[in-house]
Amino acid sequence: MTETAFTFDIQSEQVIGICHTPDGQTHKTGLLIVVGGPQYRIGAHRQYVHMARFCADQGIACMRFDYRGVGDGHGTYSGFEQVSPDIHAAIDEFRRQCPDIEQVAIWGLCEGASAILLGGAEHQDVSDIILVNPWVRSEAGLAKAYVKHYYLDKLKDPAFWKKLFGGGLNIKQAFAGLWQNVTTAFGKPKDVEQTKASESDTRPFPERMLSGLQVFDGRVLLIQSENDLTAREFDDLVNSSSDWQKAFDQKDFSRIDIADTDHTFSSEKWRSDVANATAKWLLRQ
After folding, report:
1. What CATH number is given for 2-138+196-283 in this structure?
2. Rama region for 269: left / alpha / beta (φ>0; ψ in -120 to 50; rest)
3. Domain ranges of the chain
4. CA distance 276 to 58
5. Alpha-carbon Rg of the chain, whole angstroms?
6. pLDDT at residue 115 above 90?
7. How does strand 62-65 pair with strand 13-21?
């Protein structure tokens, strides 16, 4: 496996890219790893480095890169809803750096997964998308996730009841927090705040993500962590929406749930689990 660092331009701003190239025959699909939010190309706990090296050892060429204004990238970071030009420029550079690949799969965690559906997957060379714990955060959605997945799990935990009857729990504070989440989750919805929304489409970004999924005609893999409220919030959104369910049903869609894992796969085992799941899915083509 060979690692090559280089610079390339995104709308006249210079950014850093790194390609991980297999020593032997290269799979026809390369893997582009996009970051979530204002995070640079290494990823939390060096996850993206680990994944790129692992996949390259399996014969899959990989590329990591910085958005403009992030890490070593020049320019200004405009938010995850506006990074489609960065992703498209990275795909073009990936094809130049690795001419043996014929198409590109995009892998994104959290806001990176959201960015893929918000226009990142619209590039003509994208054949596959891997969405990992997609970010669809809203105040009401987070509150529902807490009520459904956090508080109910607590009620099933013997340690909670031991702490409660042992006087180690501030009951007033605990129930105040529960009531706050219940009223937020099931009260009258507030207007959804836009984060630098597109001038041509001012819908809430989860609605625009759905539109991106509906028009994408390649393969889709959803990877969800077991112990992650962001993942549960996305599941709750999909389970409550026939449009989301229909969009997934109409795709060549796979789902992988990785046991015990947190949002960023913070242990060596969890990083290996998600990298292995990604590589196996890509190599099944």
Report:
1. 3.40.50.1820
2. alpha
3. 2-138+196-283, 140-186
4. 9
5. 20
6. yes
7. antiparallel
